[in-house]
Amino acid sequence: MLLSVLIWAVSALIWDEHVAQARSTAAPAGRDGTTTINWGSIRCPAAKSLETLPTPTYGTEKGMFLVCTELVLNASPRDAYRAVFDFRAYSRWNSFVQDVALPPEVARTPDDVYVGLATRFTTTGIIPLLNTTSIEIVTVMKGSFDEGNSENPYLLATWRYDDELHGTSSRSEHPSIFVDRGDGTTLHISYETYFTGPGTLLLLPLKETLQKQFTQQALDLKAYVERTI
């Protein structure tokens, strides 16, 4: 409990300053030809694979490890896409992310969400009996539907972790991809690639726990969107 309080206190102290910085700082550009990646074709690697997946901010840079889940939603890509950006509703359905703190100008979600938005996630289940917090910055809100892409049309929702140390301790990014299957259902691929750093080394023993939480979060999303459409 004390560790959780200390983590929350430090996060709260830097929150206002960080939000101000995020408003005036553009998200880093993708590397290594990221713009040519067919996001609609990405799938989770085989179980136990050491492969990692590209992310919009860090391109095809090799990660340290990956957690990934995919499943079919009986909902449209747009309904699911709006649900993951509806941060104020997370406490109603998400058993992993308990709360998302937002700056004052974000009165409604997903309508007021924008690229560069700094959020503070409160998560549970990573460390027993403790909640953890992290600052996550929205990096991508886009899709292929308006680009005339008829192959694997998708919507992409992404945010990256900010360690407050310019990425010297830990870097990660979490894309959620919603691929239209053409029959009223959606293939949902949700993953996070964790990149090399001393902070990431501390997370490596928690990989299986993170994978379990990601899998459950996807199941929570499925139950939520199929119930609300």
Brief descriptors of the model:
alpha+beta, seven-stranded antiparallel sheet, 28% helix, 29% strand
Topology:
Layout: H1 2-24, E1 65-73, H2 77-85, H3 90-93, E2 97-101, E3 118-127, E4 130-143, E5 154-162, E6 171-180, E7 186-195, H4 198-203, H5 207-228
Antiparallel strand pairs: 1-7, 2-3, 3-4, 4-5, 5-6, 6-7
Helix proportion of residues, in percent? 25-40%
3D shape: globular
Q: Which stretches are low in confidence, meaning pLDDT under 50 for 5 or more residues running?
A: 1-29
Helix-and-strand structural type:
alpha+beta
Q: Helical segment tally?
A: 5
Indicate the mean pLDDT.
86
Secondary-structure element series: HEHHEEEEEEHH
In terms of DSSP E residues, the strand content is: 25-35%
**Largest sheet: number of strands, sense, barrel closure:** 7 strands, antiparallel
- Number of DSSP strands? 7
State the distance separating the first and last CA atoms. 38 Å
The spatial strand order of the largest sheet comes to 1-7-6-5-4-3-2
Rg (C-alpha, Å):
17 Å
Signal peptide: 1-22
Protein name: Coenzyme Q-binding protein COQ10 START domain-containing protein
InterPro entries: START-like_dom_sf
Keywords: Signal
What does this structure look like?
This protein is an alpha+beta fold. The chain is built from 5 helices and 7 strands; from the N terminus they run αβααββββββαα. Strands 1-7-6-5-4-3-2 form a 7-stranded antiparallel sheet. The protein is globular and about 45 Å long. The N and C termini lie far apart (38 Å). The relative contact order is 0.21.
